[in-house]
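call fold(seq) -> tokens
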Amino acid sequence: MSQAMIHASGLVKGYSRGGETLTVLDRLDLEMAEGRFYALMGPSGSGKTTLLNLIGGLDQADEGSLLVAGADLASLDAPALARWRAANVGFVFQGFNLIPVLTALENVELPLTLAPLSRKERRDHARYALKLVGLEEREGHRPGQLSGGQEQRVAIARAVASDPKVLLCDEPTGDLDRKSADQVLELLARLNAEFRKTILMVTHDPHAAAVATSIVHLDKGQLGRIEQNAPRAGAATRG
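ret:
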């Protein structure tokens, strides 16, 4: 039986607009098992990205509890939260967020400067991550010399270079053509099946969601139905 990697109980999150409070998450309860690939779907404004930001420690809930990778995020001060995030979470966004003046290798290596690693160790980790996404021959290329799909694969390499437990992806195929999107989805599926990464991917695309092991639906800040997808061919057996 898989252990819970993410456990949310009674999560409430609201934002103030024009003197009024807009409740985005409304006493949300959710549990996500270790080593599974979740697609998070729902209409715009349903709280998908807000939930992703809370799980990644980029924002804090107004009420409720949130345990991620064994840590109670509400109990961590800002420095401890930054250390926890660097060690446990990788982020992949719709916009690739690569630094234009840095090479692919330097972009992947950049977040590793927060880790207790020597320069050689950082380089070795970054090179391994680029090899993992099939771009070891492009390590000296800058983002402007890469296709959109290659840029996103560099972004994924950057996200996994520190060997995080959780990978959070916000519309990772939203800016890509279908062929490039399929390559990115295949890579995420491999990271889940072979490396047991727990992945939570926000998407509006049913084609992308079909790659996940489970589809979680949000509606008006509350949990809707959860669908289980058929196992992928060659996927690792799960407990």
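The helical segments are 48-55, 78-88, 104-109, 119-132, 148-160, 178-195, 206-209.
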